[in-house]
Amino acid sequence: MIGNYIKDANFEDTGFSYTLSLISGKYKMVILYCLMEYKTVRFNELRRYIRNISDRTLSSNLKELEADRLIVRREYPQIPPKVEYSLSERGKSLMEVLDQLCVWGEQNRTE
Predict the structure, then answer these.
(1) Residue 6 within any structural domain of the chain
(2) Does 89 fall in a domain?
(3) Which of 23, 32, 55, 95 is least surrounded by CB atoms within 10 angstroms?
């Protein structure tokens, strides 16, 4: 018999599944989009940009994105504390895909 059969397939073994695991959730793609557009952003700027996100949720999403090496957290030793977030090289490599989602959305948005 020729062909691949779904009974032998496992979605979790795909690159698509891996990518989704990194960017899934309500806010991760929004955070990445913001960093793509504005390069370096502070925590409070992200919170204002996203609006309806709690500090706890934003903090959790940022920690996960940092752990997945998609963003870089830079802390400055000063008072008051200053922390900035930006895309890592790995995160920048994902932006071509995210940019295509933006293009598709602009082309297919109904007003």
Answers:
(1) no
(2) yes
(3) 55
3-class secondary structure, 24? coil
Looking at the domain assignment, is residue 1 inside a domain? no
Its pTM stands at 0.83
Distance, in Å, from the CA atom of 38 to the CA atom of 32, rounded to the nearest integer, reads 10
The pair of three-digit structure tokens given for residue 40, joined into one six-digit string: 């370096």
Q: Which helix (H) or strand (E) holds 74?
A: strand 71-76
- Record the tokens describing residue 25, joined without a space: 């959730």
Residue range 24-75, pLDDT digits in tens: 889 999 999 999 999 999 999 999 999 999 999 999 999 999 999 999 999 9
Is residue 2 in some structural domain? no
Tell me which residue range forms the domain holding 39.
15-108
Give the helix/strand (H/E) hosting 86: strand 82-87
